[in-house]
């Protein structure tokens, strides 16, 4: 379980899996725009894609919250 508390690994995941493919725009950004636009036409695979590309950011937000409230020592 130590790997989900590793800042370097989580940031690396955010910059690679979270943003890939990078061009013409980060994939997660396109999916978020699609969802905020009403998510018309999104299939199960699109929602799974949001989860897959968003998970590193969820881990990063979790680490930030734990660090702020003082539960994480490193």
TrEMBL record:
Protein name per UniProt: RND transporter
Organism from which the protein derives: Maribacter polysiphoniae
Keyword annotations from UniProtKB, A to Z: Membrane, Transmembrane, Transmembrane helix
Positions of transmembrane segments: 50-72
